[in-house]
Design brief:
There is one protein chain. The protein is of the alpha/beta class. Helix content is about 35%, strand content about 15%. The protein has one domain: Ureohydrolase domain (Arginase, Chain A). The chain has an eight-stranded parallel beta sheet with strand order 4-1-5-10-9-6-7-8, with helices on both faces. Helix 2 packs across helix 9, helix 7 runs parallel beside helix 8 and helix 8 runs parallel beside helix 9. The termini are far apart. The relative contact order is 0.17.
């Protein structure tokens, strides 16, 4: 019979932030991170299936304390779920699987963040949140509109995530830099709030105010890492020049957290083999910030 590893030795936990058991157990954690290594509908550069594990691995190098927000994120308790096994037959089955997995953690009262994988994981994740927050809107941060009704033969493609979300709840697009004519026509026909980057006239503060004003009191955040500029976030499936900087996306997210209730999030499209290790670290840092914005920053804003 194999012996259990000695508790006297310095083991490094394989979870987000490499947290010890007392800060990462499901029962005591406020936040659940669900890794979904899925990229079956990817159409350009594959590899997003390796993103979740790369984010988790890179997070072990992050400091628990955030000097900018003046808080220790380990205090919130973060449970890292096992990898959700992909279904590579029909994408609709994967949507249902993600919806069920996210819903099971929401039923336990957890704040859930999904680590993709390709951006289609947002469909099932947002549907699970919508079942518990029927008045929520979705802030969709992406270089691409993702509003195609179908792409490469499936309505559940990474290029159709925003379309499937909009069919269920209000949608706000931000950071756009690329779309097809079908998507432009859909935006106009449905009066979808769509904010392009860079902002008209270069006024970042006006951009933030307009995005926040378009959101409902409860917000689900869906982030494609290609919303960031490929000069420092090159490890994505479909890089698009002219994106946001690290500080610019954080300015927006902080404003949303201070004025709205972020109920959950997903972060997607890290293809770690397509860029330097710094990209995985940046993605992990963004997840770190989102966990803070969903919990401790909100607590502080509401005096709790």
């Amino acid at each position: 019979m194999a012996e259990s590893p000695s508790r006297d030795l310095p083991w490094v936990p394989r979870n987000f932030l490499a947290l010890p058991e007392e800060q990462s157990a499901l029962e005591s954690s406020r936040v659940v991170l669900l890794p979904v290594p899925y990229d079956s509908t990817t159409s350009f550069r594959t590899g997003a299936r390796y993103g979740p594990e790369a984010i988790i691995e890179a997070s072990s190098a992050l400091e628990d304390f955030d000097w900018e927000l003046d808080l220790d994120l380990s205090e919130v308790g973060i449970y890292t779920a096992p990898l959700l096994e992909p279904h590579v037959g029909y994408p609709g089955v994967m949507v249902a699987r993600i919806r069920e997995a996210v819903g099971s953690f929401l039923a336990q009262g957890k704040v859930v963040g999904v680590l993709g994988g390709e951006h289609s994981v947002c469909i099932g994740a947002s549907q699970a949140h919508l079942a518990r927050h029927p008045e929520m809107s979705v802030l969709y941060l992406d270089a691409h509109a993702d509003l195609r009704d179908q792409y490469l033969g499936t309505p559940y493609s990474h290029a159709s995530g925003a379309r499937r979300i909009h069919e269920k709840c209000p949608l706000v697009l931000a950071g756009l830099r690329s779309m097809c004519q079908e998507e432009r026509d859909y935006i106009r026909a449905n009066a979808i709030p769509a904010f392009f980057w860079p902002p008209v006239g270069g006024d970042e503060q006006a951009f933030i105010r307009q995005v926040v004003a378009a959101l409902s009191p409860e917000v689900y955040l869906s982030v494609d890492l290609d919303v960031l500029d490929p000069s420092f976030m090159s490890a994505v499936g479909t890089p698009e020049p002219g994106g946001m900087s690290w500080q610019q996306i954080n300015n927006l997210l902080r404003a949303v957290a201070q004025e709205r209730h972020i109920v959950g999030f997903d972060v997607n499209e890290l293809s770690p083999k397509e860029g330097p290790a710094a990209c995985s670290y940046i993605a992990a840092k963004l997840v770190y910030k989102l966990v803070a914005y969903c919990t401790l920053v909100r607590d502080r804003a509401h005096g709790s």
